[in-house]
Structures are given as structure tokens and as C-alpha cells.
Design goal:
The protein is of the alpha+beta class and 327 residues long. The chain folds into three domains: 2-139, Roll (Nuclear Transport Factor 2, Chain: A), CATH 3.10.450; 144-210, Immunoglobulin-like (Sandwich); 213-324, no CATH class. The chain contains five helices and 22 strands. It has helices at residues 2-34, 38-51, 54-61, 75-83, 213-231, and strands at 63-64, 85-90, 94-97, 100-109, 112-126, 130-135, 138-139, 142-147, 152-155, 158-161, 166-170, 175-182, 186-195, 203-207, 210-211, 250-251, 256-261, 267-270, 273-276, 279-290, 297-314, 319-324. The strands form six sheets. Strands 2, 3, 4, 5 and 6 form a five-stranded antiparallel sheet that branches. A five-stranded antiparallel sheet has the order 10-9-12-13-15. Strands 16, 17, 20, 21 and 22 form a five-stranded antiparallel sheet that branches. A hairpin with a 2-residue loop joins strand 18 (267-270) and strand 19 (273-276).
């Protein structure tokens, strides 16, 4: 009887030990999968991007910075790059051999679905049981930015220098990048691009700078004043003006010019400068002429189409339009 009781106690003890061991194994497996799994590295990396912590993100990614402008790699510009990255889902690791896995994340940027894949490798264990994972070393991707006829632009809310209208920026991925240029006289509408993988280069934003309405209105005002001053001259050939009238008859009344169609001002980039497209319009001459043979006096109204060019100079202090009239 005593031996039977001992056996029962030992059996119960062994059963309890097996349960504990099984529970420990289960716990190790679960902790290894959910706390020390490679997905956690991806979660931590995405969190660092959202926090604008570029130093931590770079360390987690095991990344190196290419020879490019680093303005987008920390702080507010980095945070803004993640602001439009929404509906993020981190997928399960996929074994690819040699202790490596690929983890894909899906997300949307401005309503468009994207996928990014991160390669990670097992680097050892902690506390004998738990795997350690690191991103496979990589070089950060770059973003090319260009802007017509300007030496600066705004990228993710930060003013950046643009030597000769171009620059290259190192960026993290995933990320959304928005660039624009705005000044009183010239502007380029905002353009966006999503960087979704670690491929170096390939992503570009080209800003097409144009003259603002304020500049066009100012230039148009100067062109109109020039033509109005020409029209104020009471002669058939106003000096330094693009229109005139010739006749063999005698003038028998006042000479009056009027501009009936002013030119449309178009300002375009050319060879690193801003130029005005050729200008054309219509003037109207009103006067009275006497026929030298019959002596008849007749009131005449004559339309005169004209064309000319103009040089444009724009600085912070002044806008100057210089008409160029060729006879």
C-alpha cells in the first residue's frame, strides 16, 4: 500500500513536471514568435520613422547613408514622410533560406495600395532560447528633386537648397514626399512621390516652375503703359514704337491712335532665364486725309497689326520690361 502511494505521488509529480515543461516550451515558442520574432524589428522601425527618430530608424534598419543630402532623415521631414502612410499591416515572415526571412508590409499612401519587403537575418540567441534578428544591411534609397530656374525648393515642409536647380536626398522607406516652390513671382505646384523599396535612385520629382499671376499682371501693366504712351503720340510713326502708318495723302485732321487689342503676356523659362514670348496686338489710327489730286477730305480709321519683343528682368527689388522694336 505504501509503495503504491509513493508511485502515485511520483506519477503526479512527473505529470506536473511534464505540464510545466510543456508550458515552458510553449511559452518559449510563443515569446520567440511574438516578442523576439523578426516582425518586432519591423514594428520598431516603423515606430521610429513615425516618431521622426532617424538615428534609431537607421540603426534598426542596419542601413548606411549614401552620398546625398540628409535633410529628410530626421525630425519633422521624416515624420511628415510617414503622415500619409496609412492602414499598415505587417505580414508573417517568409523563410528564404540561410537563416533569412522576408517580411512584407502593406499600406496605403494617398489612397493607393503599396507593398514593401524587408529582408532580415537570424543573428543568434538571447538567454539561450530566444532568437535575435536584424535587418540585412542596405543602403538607403535616394530621391532626385529638380526645379526650373530656382536655387531652392520646399520638400516635406523643409526649405532645401537646389544648386543649379537639382539635388539628391537620402530617404527612408516607406515614405511619402511632397515638393513645391512658392514665391511672389514664381511658383511650382506641389508634386508627390511614394518611396516603397530600398532600390537606390529611380524616384524623381520635377517641379515645373511658372510665372505667378502677380508677375504676369505686373509685366502686362508695363507692356500696356508702353503701348499707351506710343498711342499718345499724335504722329503717323510714334518714336520707338511697334506701329506706324504711311500715306501719300495730306493730313487734314488730328491724328489719334488707340490700342484695340493688347498683347497676351506669356513668360517662359529658357536656358536658365525667364523670357517673354513675342508680343502682338492691334492698334487703330483715326484721322482725316485729303486726296492730293481731287482735294477730297475723307475720315479714315485704319487698323494696324503690330509685333515686338521685350527683355524681362526680375529681381527682389524690381521688375523691368524693356521693349525691343525692330523696324
Amino acid at each position: 500500500m505504501q509503495t503504491s502511494s509513493v508511485i502515485k505521488v511520483l506519477a503526479a509529480w512527473l505529470l506536473g513536471l511534464m505540464v510545466v515543461v510543456a508550458g515552458a516550451i510553449t511559452t518559449v515558442v510563443l515569446v520567440n514568435a511574438h516578442i523576439f520574432g523578426p516582425e518586432e524589428q519591423v514594428h520598431d522601425y516603423l515606430e521610429a520613422l513615425s516618431d521622426g527618430d532617424g538615428e534609431r530608424a537607421l540603426g534598426l534598419l542596419n542601413g548606411s547613408v549614401p552620398a546625398a543630402n540628409a535633410a529628410m532623415l530626421d525630425g519633422a521631414p521624416l515624420q511628415q514622410s510617414m503622415a500619409a502612410v496609412e492602414n499598415v499591416t505587417v505580414g508573417e515572415p517568409v523563410e528564404v533560406g540561410d537563416g533569412r526571412v522576408d517580411i512584407a508590409i502593406t499600406y496605403t499612401v494617398r489612397g493607393t495600395e503599396h507593398t514593401s519587403t524587408f529582408p532580415l537575418e537570424r543573428t543568434g540567441t538571447e538567454w539561450l532560447f530566444f532568437n535575435t534578428w536584424e535587418f540585412v544591411p542596405s543602403v538607403l534609397p535616394t530621391l532626385e528633386l529638380s526645379v526650373i530656374n530656382q536655387m531652392e525648393a520646399t520638400l516635406n515642409g523643409t526649405r532645401v537648397g537646389m544648386p543649379e536647380g537639382r539635388n539628391q536626398f537620402a530617404v527612408f522607406y516607406p515614405g511619402d514626399f511632397e515638393a513645391h516652390y512658392t514665391s511672389e513671382y514664381f511658383a511650382a505646384a506641389a508634386q508627390t512621390v511614394a518611396v516603397t523599396d530600398r532600390t537606390a535612385g529611380g524616384k524623381r520629382i520635377a517641379l515645373a516652375t511658372e510665372a505667378t499671376d502677380a508677375l504676369v499682371e505686373t509685366v502686362d501693366g508695363q507692356v500696356r503703359r508702353f503701348l499707351d504712351e506710343c498711342a499718345a503720340q499724335t504722329v503717323f510713326q510714334p518714336a520707338n514704337c511697334p506701329f506706324n502708318f504711311q500715306t501719300e495723302n495730306r493730313v487734314a485732321g488730328d491724328i489719334r491712335w488707340a490700342i484695340t487689342e493688347y498683347p497676351t503676356v506669356v513668360i517662359e523659362p529658357f536656358n536658365g532665364n525667364w523670357v517673354m514670348a513675342p508680343l502682338s496686338g492691334t492698334a487703330e489710327l483715326s484721322t482725316s486725309l485729303q486726296d492730293l489730286f481731287t482735294g477730297t477730305i475723307e475720315a479714315v480709321t485704319v487698323p494696324r497689326e503690330f509685333g515686338f519683343t521685350a527683355r524681362l528682368s526680375v529681381s527682389d527689388d524690381a521688375i523691368t520690361v524693356t521693349p525691343v522694336v525692330q523696324y
